[in-house]
Specification:
mainly beta; 4-stranded antiparallel beta sheet
Length: 131
């Protein structure tokens, strides 16, 4: 079951909602292939159809830019194939094009600077469970 989190800045009022995890309909990567960005989707489909896939992992995750503080949620996927080669989706910041870092625990957002005002005044609340 997935979780939803709301993040808001106590200083400037910035707010954003994030979904993390997977739901019941996520029984295979092929079942949720449309969640992968179209530029990456063709690569993923080629790996799934033409390679010897040993393992897949995938979920919605939260990412933070360590340079400008931009936040985003994204659908991450990892495929281990052939001779233990690994394909893993990576994400660049939409503002400064820096590689983004995964936030492994949404409560870590409390220590991140607000992308709007730069202050570390985030309030983080789990506000939903989704399936």
């Amino acid at each position: 079951m997935g979780e939803g989190y709301s993040v808001s800045c106590d200083r400037c009022g910035f707010g954003q909602h994030f979904m993390v995890g997977v739901g019941m309909g996520y029984y295979s990567l092929e079942a949720v292939i449309d969640l992968i960005h179209p530029k990456r989707r063709s690569k993923v489909l080629k790996l799934l159809n033409e390679c010897s896939v040993h393992e897949t992992d995938y979920e919605h995750r939260i990412y933070c830019c360590e340079v400008c503080g931009n936040l985003r949620s994204a659908f991450w996927a990892k495929i281990v194939h052939d001779d233990d080669e690994i394909y893993e989706t990576q994400f660049l910041c939409g503002k400064c094009r820096t590689p983004m870092e995964q936030i492994s625990n949404p409560l870590q957002l409390k220590t991140k600077p607000c992308p709007s005002c730069g202050e570390e005044k985030f309030h983080v609340a789990e506000d939903m469970l989704w399936d």
